[in-house]
Structure formats: structure tokens, C-alpha cells
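Appendix B, example 12.
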Amino acid sequence: MKKEFPHSSEVLVEIKGLKKHFIVKGGGYFKKEKKIVKAIDSVNLEIFKGETLGLVGESGCGKSTLGKNLLRLQEPTAGEVYFKGQNILNHNKKEIRRLRKDIQIIYQDPFGSLNPRFTIGQIIGEMFDIHGIASKEEKVNKVRALLELVGLDSNRINDYPHQFSGGQRQRVGIARALALNPEFIVADEPVSALDVSVQAQIINLLMRLKKEFGLTLLFIAHGLNVVRHISDRVGVMYLGRIVELAPTDQLFDHPGHPYTAALLSTVPDVDQRLKNERIVLRGEVPSPANPPTGCHFRTRCPIATEKCSAITPQLNEVRKQHFIACHYPLNIGQSLKSMLSNS
């Protein structure tokens, strides 16, 4: 079934020129050499109100770093992040605390993100304590209601995290994220640490809650099948840059960037045509401390030319709502193998 997009023309979150650089010590004799790791390299992105934007890419491409910088859990090196028209990078600590009621995060590790010394009631109830928005009795009632909302027994309010399974702990994390009725949630690989059977339950829960509460989600994940199931649009990241962005069906049916096409071709049952056109990328992902000039993907791209090393491709709208950062984007129905055979 085709997905409708966009759910709203209203931009809830806008990212402009976002960069995050880490300075690390080199391996010299005196270890005085310093290298700059460009985890996020000039990302521009809009997230529409009411949509789920999936973000995919190989490990180390900058997906989780982008989510944390967007929420100011890490401080960006440069750029702007707008939430409802306000640049939140200009907010002070007090303003950021108030903003936490509107933007929340669901972490990847459902055990590591929960304080093992606190009961489930204390973990979720802490949200109300920090913002001072509920009496003791109201807090207990709200926590019980949240547990029921995410499919947990409210009578377990005094249990500790270790007494729950991985899937149940992730439900607790979701309940905590929903406690203050946020508008925007970053789900940072929320199912990657769970069994496959449990993953489907958590994805369906997120989809139900999104519809019920009108949430906007940034869904970060490795699994392309999971992303296709939950997302309205999908962004593909490679070495700190977004290389393709499109409505989900458009991206999966007609990938335009060589990296996206190669990525999809390795996933079983995503697309029969791509399955028959499987591309094996050569080499490893370059270090973000020493990325290639021009297009970061060029050292692994089978169709790269000298132009790719000299000029950085920009994210341009090649088709309606379909943005690609490539000098030689694939046409609809075109595969990397057919392009190679005709070159």
C-alpha cells in the first residue's frame, strides 16, 4: 500500500548546515597530534509535523550523532536547529529544560538507559518531578496510565529494570518518553538490541502511539525492512552527509544514489529487481577523520569519475520530493549494473 506524504506541509524541525566535529589525539610518539573527526558534515534537513522520517546508513555514518545534536544532548560544532521556528542552539539551560517537554528520545539500549537503582515508577515519575507538574498522587496515577498505554501491567510499578525482559524495558523507555506529551521524539535505533519477534511488537506500538498522539518521529535504524514499514520518508546517510532523501516507496522502488541502490540490493526481499542486480561495494568505509575529497562515497562507487573527486555534490531535488547528492543519479528503473554495462 502506498504511503501518503507529507502528512503536513508544516515544518516542525529544520536543520541547517549542522556540523559535529570531534578532536581526537593521534598515534604519534608523544600523542600530541590531533585529528578532527567530522561525524556530521553540513547536514540540511526538514522534518514535517506528523511524519516519521527514517534515517539509515552503515555504522559510523553519523545517524545517532545527528539525533543527539538535534536534541542538544551533544553540542554541535556549527549550524542551526529550528524547532517550531526557534533556533534551539541559542537556548540557555533553563530554556532547554522547558523544551524537554516537547522533544524526547528513546534510546537504543533498553537496559543501559534505565537506572538499575530506581523502580519503574521512579524512572517514569522522575519526569514529572523535574518539571514539577504533578502532585505525588497524580504522579502515581499518570505512571500507571502510561504503563497500561505501552502494554505493561501497572501493578509492576514498583519493580526494577532487571525484572523485565528487553522488550518490556523498551516499553518502559517509550512510556518515559511519552510522559510529558512531547510533539517530537528521536527514536535512536530502538529495536536493534531486541529479538526479531519483539522488534515487530515495538514497531507496531510506536506506529499506534504516533497515530494516537499525533507524534513526529525521527526513526534511526540499521534495518531497512523496519524503516520501510514505519517511515513516511527515508534519509540515507554516508560518512556524515545525507546522500538521498525521498518518500519511502519512491526511495525503495527507485533509488537514485549508487550507495542507496547498493545498500538496498543486499537486503533480502526488499525488491526482486534489486535482488537480481546485487552490487558488492569494494573497500571499507573511509575514516571520518580523513574523508575523501569531493563525494565521500567516490572511493567505493563503481561509477565515480574525476569530477566526483573534485566537486562535492549537493543534495538537489531530482524528482518531486526526491533529493539526491550525486553527479550521476540513476534514472527511474535504472540499475547500477546496467549503467556500468552501458558506460
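The chain has one domain: 11-102+182-342. DSSP finds twelve helices and twelve strands in the chain.
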